[in-house]
Sequence to fold (611 residues):
Amino acid sequence: MLAAKVYIFRLAVMLFPKIIRIFNDMQKEIDAMSAKRLFTCLALCAALLFGTISVPSVAAVNRAGYAAFSYTDWSRQQGRSDWDDWKDSWEEWSRSKDWPDWQNWKESGWNKWPGWYYCWYWLFGFNWVQWWNSRSDGNKSVPVITDPPYYYDEIDDYNLYFGHLSAHSSLSDGEGSLKEAYRHARDDAGLDFFAVTDDSGMFDNAAEATLADGSKSSEWTGGKAIADTFTDSRFVAIFGYEMAWNNGNGHINTFNTNGFETAGEAAFSGAGGLLNYYNKLKKHTGSISQFNHPGKEHGDFHDFNYYDGEIDALVSLIEAGNGEGAVGSDKYYRSYDYYTRALDKGWHLAPTNNQDNRSANFGDANTARTVILAKKLTRDDLYDAMRNRRVYATEDENLEIRYTLNGHIMGSIVNTASDEVRIRVKLKESGSETIGKVSVISKGGEIVTSQTLAVQSYTLDLTLPADRPYYYIRVDQFDKDIAVTAPIWVVKGSSNSGISGTHGIILDCSNKTDKDKTDGNKDKKDKNAQKKDEAVRNVCDLINKIYTNGQNISQSAVKAARDAYNKLKEDQKKQVDNYWKLVAAENWKVWEEYRSKNNDHSGKKAARQKE
Fold:
């Protein structure tokens, strides 16, 4: 601390003569300016000062409301500097006013004003922003907003990691040891991650293993240990297993479990084995599963039957492409139609493309890749992305796609009251070819809109009607390679997700009566349906009461809403469509505390508090 003070003192001594010269220059410029120009300059200074007080503070308020849509992204912003927050907010606000944007600032003519004006604006305007966002008067203004503001977009928040999520080693029916598989994928194929998923029925002592405990199998425990030794900051090795039915149920890869199950067990054999496996997975909520190569050869999971919300949260991936053969050959299988069919059946899935290697060509058998969007290259970050469907499938090993809807990244479920959605697709082809045809796809494979891009890099901005249950991006390149992203699902107020009748209802917080909500439910299997609706609507109303006078937060109302929400059952909690407002209100206090701790004027703030 002493060294820092000495450094600051020396810096002040060094800068003092320059500051004096600046003020002298300011005086000369003022003397030389006409009265009209001086008045105009001072008026602009005053306007900009007002802007630095009001606009960034409103933007910070909106960030608190936005936190509920993605708490992870809200917490991510805590590491950003005040200058970045201020600059981003100012850029978006100036664009919304049709002012010259930040990039064209020098061409706008603003740089004709004297240098002292910008110095004054930065010093005083910036500090006013900091004071405004850390006031001690208890004002916690949070507007009640339905949609996140457009100034913040997740499109560049994540890194792209290329790899595969399905392969077989000599532990089952593949060639090459586990070590050879990981080494080849890392060193020869140059992948960021690689998963080996051997047939679980071929592990030693498989009959004694369970999903909770696979310790009786040395091949299982040894495989997980080998994956750990190959995992470092530049490569992630994943060891999972495949449930491989031979009766038409289909094949499923499962990751992130302590043990495994086998398709040959009595509980999982036969036509009912698939549903029994789903029920088993529900007891292991940290697991992540993938539908493998759906089709006539291995099965389509009973036409993607047995949907429910619990298993939907655990099966988050589906192969849109599979095979070691060259892309387009008869040893490579496309299943894009099955991907869309699963979505229309109600499943929330992200597409993958895996080589399913059985030869010693781990990762470089063809150009197909699974791409995961994650903050860091760690196993936990990859699992988080897989679970939240931040994944896309590509047959081109270089194609980069970042896709957002209303600012949310692919894989999100967005609740909106707007009649339109804003879609952004950022594409880059680093190979020798161009991007190709880019299409927005929705239910039933409908092409909502498309555009052909004969360039290697482009950001597509679209505004489309918010009248479809989901939207995903498909790229058809000129060499016939295909890429598809995870969808973004759109939930409109009082409607259900719109995906299918099998999907769980998301109740709105409207004033509909219980009779309105239960009419048409002729079978009335759930006698407590009306009671559940009352409980959900009560929580919605309590959440709305958090915001007094439309803006200010009542902390007692926050507690009441949280207590009521915690008493709901899990299926009821999923029906509270304004839950984000509760999270926003709770996190706003955390944000304020963060700002006060990191504020450059914390001493002045403490002095004001004492007064």
